[in-house]
């Protein structure tokens, strides 16, 4: 083996170890903290006569088993027993966090089968301080896009109990993994850089890079005032010089998901706002060299992803990539316009 290959292999092992360490650090304990209602699904495997059970704890074991098929697949997920029309029409998975936390977002991983995901249509995430579901508050909109097997629900609520709820259905509810997401702190005037320069608006203020990490979602404002609340580069009409927003986390972190908030505006009948960002890419890296970064997900498609796109950052098939820098890049003559960047990791909430 050459010296170069040895160095590459060593780097892969170090990064893989970092990802695995972070994943285990943030995993749920899998005993006594997950409950399925009304009943847990079980069945007999015809090939060997063994009874397989889709335990609630499967949804918090740290394994995303959605690509397996058949009986093995559902036995590695959490699933309720289908009910007749006369029985309960509410199915849910309850996760007890043991104490009250601020829950920024929840990510579900569903079965890799569109028929099974169609059964989950209308699924909602709720957060509560009580085991009484009547007191819970809903996060975000219900699950409707069955082509998305890993829906993300923004909560921003305090609570001890997290519920994945399927209402008005005979079931089954099927969840392969549930992740409670924590948002990384990206604030700091020196943490973000725009290239080329930030645009100077009509009001004499610059749409500086730090606007993209100030925690404000100023996406609906139009004109110069809206631009000053976002990070916006200048345009160039001749060459397609790559424009980018670079964010320095200050240290290496395992980044799992990145979400953007793009401008929502149309001026003079032109295609502007988030539609103008078509082809935008999100990359992460361990150095401040863009050419050595790795892209997360696919280039931005406004029709498919909408105004608030998010991507997975993966390494060797695992969700989670060790990096210090986030790059949002647009190869076009038009301006790069980013109102907010959010980075997430699946966090254990300090169980003890």
Mind telling me the CATH class of the largest domain? Mainly Beta
Beta content: 35-45%
Terminal CA distance? 45 Å
Roughly what percent helix? 10-25%
Mean pLDDT: 79
CATH superfamily of the largest domain: Galactose-binding domain-like
Instruction: Write down the secondary-structure element order.
Output: HEEEHEEHEEEEEEHEEEEEHEEEEE
| CATH topology name of the largest domain | Jelly Rolls
Radius of gyration (Å)? 22 Å
Can you count the beta strands?
A: 21
Structural class category = mainly beta
Low-confidence stretches: 3-31, 348-352
Number of helices: 5
Biggest sheet layout = 10 strands, antiparallel
In short:
The protein is mainly beta and 352 residues long.
Descriptive account of the structure:
The chain is mainly β and 352 residues long. 12% of the residues lie in helices and 36% in strands. The protein folds into two domains: 31-181, Sandwich (Jelly Rolls), CATH 2.60.120.260; 192-346, Jelly Rolls (Sandwich). The relative contact order is 0.15. Residues 3-31 and 348-352 have low confidence and may be disordered. The chain is elongated, with a radius of gyration of 22 Å. A hairpin with an 8-residue loop joins strand 15 and strand 16. Strands 1, 5, 6, 7, 8, 10, 12, 14, 17 and 21 form a ten-stranded antiparallel beta sheet that branches.
């Amino acid at each position: 083996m050459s010296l170069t290959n040895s160095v590459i292999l060593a780097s892969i092992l170090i990064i893989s170890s970092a990802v695995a360490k972070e994943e285990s650090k943030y995993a749920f304990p899998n005993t006594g903290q997950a409950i399925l209602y009304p009943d847990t699904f079980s069945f007999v495997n015809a090939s060997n006569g063994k009874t397989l059970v889709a335990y609630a704890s499967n949804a918090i074991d740290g394994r995303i088993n959605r690509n397996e098929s058949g009986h093995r697949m559902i036995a590695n997920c959490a699933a309720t027993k289908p009910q007749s029309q006369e029985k309960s029409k509410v199915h849910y998975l309850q996760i007890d966090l043991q104490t009250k936390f601020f829950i920024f977002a929840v990510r579900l991983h569903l079965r890799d089968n569109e028929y099974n995901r169609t059964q989950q249509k209308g699924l909602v995430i709720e957060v509560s301080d009580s085991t009484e579901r009547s007191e819970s508050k809903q996060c975000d909109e219900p699950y409707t896009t069955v082509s998305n097997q890993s829906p993300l629900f923004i909560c921003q609520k305090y609570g001890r109990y997290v519920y994945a709820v399927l209402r008005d259905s005979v079931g089954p509810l099927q969840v392969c993994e549930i992740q409670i997401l924590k948002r990384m702190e990206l604030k700091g005037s020196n943490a973000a850089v725009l290239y080329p320069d930030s645009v100077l608006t009509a009001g004499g203020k610059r749409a500086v890079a730090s606007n993209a990490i100030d925690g404000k979602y100023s996406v609906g404002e139009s004109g110069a005032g809206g631009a000053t609340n976002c990070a916006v580069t200048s345009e160039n009409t001749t060459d397609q010089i790559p424009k980018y927003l670079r964010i320095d986390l200050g240290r290496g972190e395992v980044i799992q998901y990145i979400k953007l908030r793009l401008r929502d505006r149309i001026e003079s009948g032109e295609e502007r706002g988030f539609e103008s960002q078509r082809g935008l890419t999100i990359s992460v890296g361990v150095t401040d060299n863009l050419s050595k970064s790795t892209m997360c997900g696919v280039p931005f498609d406004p029709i498919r992803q909408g105004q608030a796109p998010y991507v997975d950052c993966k390494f060797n098939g695992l969700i989670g990539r060790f990096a210090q820098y986030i790059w949002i890049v647009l190869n076009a003559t038009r301006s790069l316009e980013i109102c907010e960047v959010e980075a997430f990791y699946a966090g254990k909430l300090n169980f003890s």
